[in-house]
Amino acid sequence: MLRSESSKPEYEVFKEALTGFFNLKAANNIKSNILTIIDFSISSVFERMWIIDMNKMEVVHVSLVAHGRNSGDEFADSFSNSPSSYKSSLGFYLTGETYIGKHGLSLYLDGTEPGINDKARERAIVMHGADYVSREFIKQYGRLGRSFGCPSIPMEDHEKIINMLSGRSCIYIHSRDDKYLNSSRMFGMETALEGMSRFNYLSGR
Hints:
Layout: H1 11-26, E1 34-39, E2 49-53, E3 58-63, E4 91-101, E5 104-111, E6 126-130, H2 135-141, E7 153-154, H3 158-165, E8 170-174, H4 178-183, H5 189-203
Parallel strand pairs: 1-8, 6-7
Antiparallel strand pairs: 1-2, 2-3, 4-5, 4-8, 5-6
Helix pairs in contact: 1-5
């Protein structure tokens, strides 16, 4: 599904995100039951970020989101964990603390996967608002603007989104990247089932 205007993520992407979410839950790494899915296999002209309230099991917000300038133009097809690559990194993140920077309210991200996204802090990969993430920019240039590797979001919604996601929630950045999918350790079902059981117990399901 390279082009989409869907109110929910593709099933296989959602399944991957759930598996990783519950793996992190089993390790007691997650403090918030908000799960965010970003699908970089979709064109940047479409909304490709979904925020899901896991307690209610419903999508509560859908948004445009930019990828790194060296990951591609309209589509992101190249990823890196290296400093100064200006590329997006795939995989699972935990949201850190908020701060006020040059883009206003911003959100630190901690990559959870060694060799894949664990240099997020070193690379200053954060979630922040940007004027180039807008319908107006798309109308003018045929795609979103691009970041230095950060998942940038619309300025008009950035404070609402960041406040929703802060506090050790889970973000999954997906692409159809076989190297990542085959090397990630976040898709183990046994640990995920343990995390699911803990989640169901704590939420009274």
